[in-house]
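[09:14] KT: can someone run the structure on this one? pasting the chain below
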Amino acid sequence: MTLAQRDTEPVSIVISKQDYQRLMPLLRDSELELAEALEEELSRADIVGEEELPKDAVSMYSTVTFRDLDAQTDTTVTLVFPAEANMAEKKISILSPVGVALLGLRIGGRIRWPMPNGKQKHIEILSVQQP
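[09:31] RB: done, structure tokens below
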């Protein structure tokens, strides 16, 4: 079963070739369980050239607003590499549960994502601002 699901259908994601190439070494160097989840997501992603990446797709350094559909709260974060993560600045690591879930989604996309505590987060992408 794919980690990210919309009901019974896997959620379609798209990432740039540049992001893919920058993320692969990170996966090789990490022993985190979330690195495995990210690797699984990358393995099913549509990889496109930078100029072909839809403007509404979450990519590295995108600022994204998403709604937690269970809590009905909106959150805005910027997706960054682990060394740049800073919660005070709302910069979240690609190797965080929500970071892995956000990558490649598009505005209007919804996803259920398993969290470390065993619960699932159900989110919807509201807006994406490219770097």
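[09:33] KT: thanks! Confidence is low (pLDDT under 50) at residues 1-8.
[09:34] RB: yep, looked fine to me
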